[in-house]
Amino acid sequence: MRLIAFRPEYQITAEPSRNRIFYKHFAETAEAQELPEYLHDWQQALDAMKPGFTILSDMTELDDVSGTLGQLFQQVQQRLEGLGLRMIATVHAPGNSHAFEAETPELPRRIFTDLWEADKFLDELAAEA
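The structure assignment produced for this chain is given below.
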């Protein structure tokens, strides 16, 4: 596993052997006005992947972001299109309705409330390929 970024607002790790990116938002993201390294960090993680990669996204500490950051997150999602993304397993805290509304329907995504179940789902999906 390769640590790409460990910042106060988020962490990105790439695991080429599993063809998976692990992403975690921290609560500090809600307070951030900008994330200057965010796009670069994501690009580094994407460069380590092959087509058919998956993303495990832990959003349990965050339920909403500012409009400025929302645009930044949208830019990352646009980069994902056409790169061979197989699936995103997004983990939210139970009862977090704001986060569910923010999901983009264009990307293949499944929502979970348990990190272990999401990781297992992605492993099973990879085994089918």
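Interim note for the steering committee: The beta strands are 2-6, 10-15, 20-25, 54-58, 87-91, 109-112. The mean pLDDT is 87.
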